[in-house]
Amino acid sequence: MTSLLRDLRQSVRVLLRRPGVPLLMILTLAVGIGANTAIFNMVNALVLRPLPFHDPAPLVALHETPRSRGSEWDPISAPNLRDWRRGLDVFAGLGAFGGTNYNLGLEGRPEWVEAARVESSLFPPIGVSPIVGRGFTADEDRPDGAPVVLLSHALWQRLFLGDRGVVGRTLRLDGEVHEIVGVMPERFGFHESAKLWTPLGLDPDGRARDDRFLNALARLAPGVDAAGAQAALEKIRAPLLLHFAELDERVNAGWPAYEKALQDAGKEYTAHVYAGANHGFHNDTTPRYDEAAAKLAWSPTVEFPARHLKAD
Fold it and tell me: Most exposed residue of 149, 192, 241, 259, measured as fewest CB within 10 angstroms of its CB?
């Protein structure tokens, strides 16, 4: 929590210290999602120089806050970020990031440098592109992606004397060779005092929903305002786990229409059908109780909330 606020405050301070960057107007909105709340920090940035944001539409910083802790901010979990991407069309672009450090292996003098790991989708919404080379590709931004790096302007000048032929050369970070793919603009100071950026390589399916370690920035889609973004978030709900008894004709008759409605809404769900079972097969106080089916249903019932709905 403290680290998140420090990161955000420092990022804004770095931007504001840059000559020519006008004041940022910040508005905060809270939207309920399950046990947590998504927080929008609306950053309406008319940054004319030195960061030429190409679209004056609002930038938003996304966070979470547990309902039990009121207005405190937490980082975002990877599964929640994935769900926001799937369920929303209110963002023109969305990208996550997190701070890190690297041991930069230089000849005879290793150096500890501040850095950030970012998604390949992060910089386009901000409207900033490398002045030399390119940004990260989607293939590089995978858990098994190629090790690549973007340099800050200052690091480029210090290590390579501003050589525009730096693309394709390598740096050793924490002992691993990374190919240099680009150089960011001179006054680009995103995320504290980062000297370089590497791909985040996020795997949402490999992270628990209560493992919150990400920050994220997004740009609202054209025609979408704060109220529209809030309304869209309010429609997101937890995934569904559904159990059906094969012999329950009354309930099963409505399943095709129900499934189509779920699919049309883009709803995440998992459905199980238990062969030879009747309605209420899990209730051991009725003649319809089916011990084998009830035991079979127990494992996914226990695993589902552990995977999707972990509480704070």
Answer: 259
Per-residue confidence band for 34, with pLDDT thresholds at 50, 70 and 90 = very low
Domain C-terminal end among 234, 263, 297: 234
Percent of residues, the chain, with pLDDT higher than 70 = 70
Residue type, 72: E
- The burial class, CB within 10 Å (0-12 / 13-18 / 19+), for 147 is middle
pLDDT, tens digit (0-9, with 9 covering 90-100), for 189-203: 776 688 999 999 988
Non-local (6+) Cβ contacts of 306 within 8 A are none
Same-domain status, 177 and 29: yes
Residue 200 and residue 269 in one domain:
no
Q: Are residues 67 and 207 in the same domain?
A: yes
Give the contacts of 97 (CB within 8 A, at least 6 positions apart): 116, 117, 118, 119, 122, 191, 200, 214, 215, 216, 217
User: In whole angstroms, how far apart are CA 4 and each of 11, 98, 159, 196, 224?
Assistant: 11, 9, 30, 19, 27
Residues 205-246 have pLDDT tens digits of 767 666 778 888 888 888 887 677 767 766 666 677 888 889
Q: pLDDT averaged over the chain? A: 75
Contacts of 302-308 with CB under 8 Å at 24 or more apart are 304/239, 304/241, 304/270, 307/208, 307/209, 308/79, 308/209, 308/238, 308/239
At 142 the pLDDT is: 93
What is the domain range of residue 165? 2-234
One domain, residues 67 and 100: yes
